[in-house]
PRELI domain containing 1a (Acanthochromis polyacanthus), 210 residues
Amino acid sequence: MVKYFCCAGLLKNTWDQVCIAYWQRYPNPYSNHVLTEDIVFREVTPTNCLISRRLLTKTSRAPRWMERYLPKHMASSAYIIEDSIVDPQKRTMTTLTWNISHARLMSVEERCEYRINPENGSWTEIKREAWISSNVYGLSRAIQEFGLARFKTSVTKTMKGFEYVLAKMQGETPSRTLAETATERARETALAAKEKAKGLASQAQKKQYV
């Protein structure tokens, strides 16, 4: 049995911008789990389509109950193959990714299609599909549910990372940076208040002993 998931996304950027940002996604604050990316091959077809294959290395911490089924050196990392084809005439980019490590335990295949939004030519819509399967007898359903939950979480991070890179490309301040700045200022204010409180407390103690 295979778990199927499908969702749609929207990026308020042109298709050309999204395609450029796709190759510049890493690193970003939402992709700390991506360790390396290597191009296996890349070629242009006679119809001017760009075909690429990349190998990605990601951290992939398995839950403790699952670690017993994995070799120690594989319990915290995963290798992912990513195929893509960019068709400049149809204005589409299609990607297909799947894991080549832990595949017997859990296989996750993802297909994404990036197209110009029909209602707004300056926006890009994304159709995302995923197939999650497991061949572990007696645990396949639990593993698939775990894989689906993790995949949904990763989709949210992927979209945030995409928006971050697109904003940076256009010279805008990414929302993550604004949030970090606000957090840092809040910490500084809290630290100053804490030091002030310490000073007041120290003075109060001295008055008690005078």
Observations:
- The chain has a mean pLDDT of 83.
- The chain is about 35% helix and 35% strand.
- Strands lie at 2-11, 34-44, 50-59, 77-87, 92-99, 107-116, 124-133.
- The radius of gyration is 23 Å.
